[in-house]
Request: fold
Amino acid sequence: MKLAILSRNRNLYSTRRLIEAAENRGHEVHVIDVLRCYMNIMSRKPGVHLEGNALTGFDAVIPRIGASVTAYGTAVLRQFEMMGVYTLIESVALARSRDKLRSLQLLSRKGVGLPVTGFANKPGDTKDLIKMVGGAPLVIKLLEGTQGIGVVLAETNTAAESVIEAFMGLRANILVQEFIAEAGGSDIRCLVVGGKVVAAMKRQAAEGEFRSNLHRGGSASLVKISPDERQTAVQAAKILGLSVAGVDLLRSERGPLVMEVNSSPGLEGIENASGKDVAGIIIEQLERNARPGNTATRGSKG
Reply:
């Protein structure tokens, strides 16, 4: 098959591993910078172009689109879908997963375990918002934040009020969440591919830090997950429509809680921790499903 990987940097670990896994299985791989693409939006014959050439003949697209270019990247991905090309992650699911508030609302509607989460618009609602999520300590998150950036732990109600009002003063959209103390600064990343958890790792925050992100100095180790955790991860990916997802869980006294669902999960930490060829498993998922027109995206779904 002729595959396109939408990635701005072919030297990133995850992109390199996907190239390697695909080429080892005999596929032709092209890495395409999504921001350099431009689109011909016309009736019956949509197209994607790069450097003066039409991008044609692709059997499948693997999106590795960074959060900062979600809007444009999703538009390019949608254009490939309109051309009948199979996409490993569909544009609708990608956009849904990048909207943290919408993702939580969809998961909540289906009864998936979540930390108690609040969302508000005006500083006058701050005190009740804090009370609603159980009071301090609590976590304040920028909706657009990634890799632990824009996540603050407020240890007192006074500190929480100050941080929330500061963010609101900057017109930043934030979520306010209960702090799950029993998680002990750790979370579980489950890698879901094709409706199955294929690998899992425990991420532990560095000493003096509450964020377990590997980019923030956290450590990763192999972990055995419970049937309940496995089911929760699979259900979360399914609800958001993701065939490949990194589902982050917190272990709480009331069971697993979904913290976030990532549509472009990094492969380095989980491959190293689990010892599994996750990139190869993803390519196998693509091989099973890649055929012209196999996409749920239609113009009416937006």
Summary: The CA atoms of residues 139 and 153 lie 5 Å apart.
